[in-house]
Amino acid sequence: MEEKFEYIEKTKKQLRNWFNSKKREKIKFENFDNFYSWYKEQDKVCYYCGLSEKDSQKIVKTGLLKSNRFPENGVISSGRARGMWLEIDRKDPNKKYSEDNCVLACYFCNNDKSDVFDAKQYKKYLKDRSKFFKDILNNDTNS
After folding, report:
1. How far is CA 43 from CA 37, 46, 50, 53, 63, in A?
2. What distance in Å separates the CA atoms of residue 116 and residue 126, rounded to the nearest whole number?
3. Hey, which of 33, 55, 92, 129 has its CA 20 to 30 A from 2?
4. How do beta strands 102-105 and 87-90 pair?
């Protein structure tokens, strides 16, 4: 039986908080409105593996995968919100956050990629790994 799940979009307030936390030295977006426009135009799928934000949220909220960084029992709290939304990743970790250097990445890829790979290297490394998420989601549908 499938657990009830409702997708929640990231709020403008959450995005503003992220922007403000990065703006001192790491952002080349002209201002928050410029960044917000960029974000709203993005497809909400992971640049690396193709996992949608909705499916990522379902995996996290319904407990298909567990982590101390995920919301407990679907409840978001301080320090326990990872995986709920796609994260803003720098394609080249040595460059600043900018329109040309940013992509949306799922928690799993962003955490895995870290600052080890640039986007091109990581996509090569990742080729067959997205099947894992599809299998988890398909198994949940069949239960």
Report:
1. 12, 8, 10, 9, 25
2. 13
3. 129
4. antiparallel
Residue 133: pLDDT band by 50, 70, 90 thresholds?
low
| 88: β partners | 104
In whole angstroms, give the CA distance from residue 3 to residue 18. 30
Cα Rg of the chain, angstroms:
15
- Count the residues in the chain: 143
Sorted by where each begins, the domain ranges of the chain are 12-142
CB within 8 Å of 125: residues ≥ 6 apart: 117
Q: What is the CATH number of domain 12-142?
A: 3.30.40.220
- Band of residue 1 on the pLDDT scale cut at 50, 70, 90: very low
